Fold this protein.
Amino acid sequence: MSNMIRLASVTAHSSVDGPGLRTVVWFQGCPHHCVGCHNPETQSVDKGYCVTMDELILKIESLHNKKITLSGGDPFLQALPLLELVERLESLGYNIWCYTGYTFEECLNHPVFKACLRHMDMLVDGRFILDQMDHTLMFRGSKNQQIIDLKQYFELNTINDQSQWYLVE
Ligand code: SF4
């Protein structure tokens, strides 16, 4: 049976959540409670709205953009729906970026989280840390956050943090 998923919203044509114009799926619910959170209305697990996975895929496909970013909230808080979503998006040919407040290492140590990573292209990891906020960073808010090439990690077993590629000139 297909999973239900709780969302805050779906937006089209974002230019600040990964390279290029991207569809963004904003998950509802986040356990991290970072001070200075950029999106505090997405932290509650009771707000937002629920859709079936089929409804979400139809919505995404209607936007005709194969670049997609999963953000929130924390997508990994709904790990089983997230796994179904990324499996289906990968099979449909999407380039998938995902944001999480968990570190890459925390994700690797959780079997379902790790299974999700295998179907994504890039992960922006780690909690937002106000003391490490830096406006010269693109696609992330604080210096502790890494931009991990997941395909390279699973093919070569090396961590390629591409954060240095994404600095404001
Ligand atoms: S992980 Fe992101 S959404 Fe969650 S509290 Fe931190 S900044 Fe906010």
In short: The longest strand covers residues 4-14. The chain has one domain: 4-165. Helices lie at 53-62, 79-91, 104-108, 111-117, 150-156.
